[in-house]
Design a protein that fits this description.
Length: about 240
């Protein structure tokens, strides 16, 4: 990424354990508008239950819900702690990187990647997409969640001279996936998030950028700050 852009922190360092993972998610509690996780689930629920791979499974909430709905689920994550938490929910999980999956080809009817791709470095995206393509059955489905390049613009605009950019923004999803997937459908999900105070907003930014010192440039504000969350849920069919 360019020097004048926000360097997105890698999920391996940000979400190695549940503390930061939960802190980041807590910002969205009580936000207005539809919950992007519910929209993702509604897209997944349109598929007949089969073999499901949840890449970047986190604590395993989605994986467990899918298992209860009749899917045969495997969760993978780069964090050993997260895979251990997923396993406590009764879902098999292993520590793996989406760029180098140690799994047999054409094994899954669906792959879910919820807010994962935008934490990869841009050159790694084709490798990740090719691996997902490899483990999907012919005609299998990828269901993913990501952010818009205007996600929380009111927050990022408070970092003078810095532009929020992510490698896998919703606006570019279809073109990025095109070599491996077709029938790409993108559903925008918007709402309002309120940061209750400056300290909470700064911590959120610090967990998102590298170097962390970029967060020190966040313009101060009194009381609370309301921002627009702009997420997207997409589905795509393996070519």
């Amino acid at each position: 990424m360019a020097d004048d852009g926000v360097r997105q922190a890698h999920s391996r360092s940000v979400f190695a354990d549940e503390r930061r993972y939960r802190a980041q998610r807590s910002v969205y509690r009580g936000s207005s508008g539809p919950d992007a996780r519910d929209v993702l689930w509604s897209v997944l629920a349109r598929q007949p239950p089969g073999a499901l791979l949840d890449v970047g499974c986190g604590e395993g909430e989605l994986a467990a819900r899918a298992a209860e709905a009749g899917w045969s689920v495997l969760g993978v994550d780069t964090s050993e702690r997260m895979t251990a938490l997923t396993a406590t929910r009764g879902v098999p999980a292993s520590c793996q990187d989406v760029r180098h999956l140690g799994l047999s080809s054409e094994r899954f009817s669906c792959v879910v990647a919820a807010w994962l791709f935008h934490y990869l470095d841009e050159p790694d995206l084709p490798t990740a997409f090719a691996e997902i393509h490899r483990v999907l059955e012919p005609g299998g489905t990828l269901v993913a969640a990501t952010q818009s390049e205007r996600h929380m613009a009111e927050l990022w605009d408070r970092l003078p001279g810095v532009t929020y950019r992510i490698p896998f923004a919703a606006e570019a999803a279809e073109s990025l996936l095109a070599p491996w997937f077709t029938e790409v459908s993108v559903s925008d999900v918007e709402g309002t998030v309120v940061f209750p105070d400056y300290a909470t907003a700064r911590e959120f930014v610090a967990n998102q950028v590298r170097p962390v010192s970029l967060a020190d440039g966040l313009a101060h504000f009194n009381d609370s700050l309301a921002v627009t969350r702009r997420s997207a849920i997409l589905s795509a069919v393996r070519r």
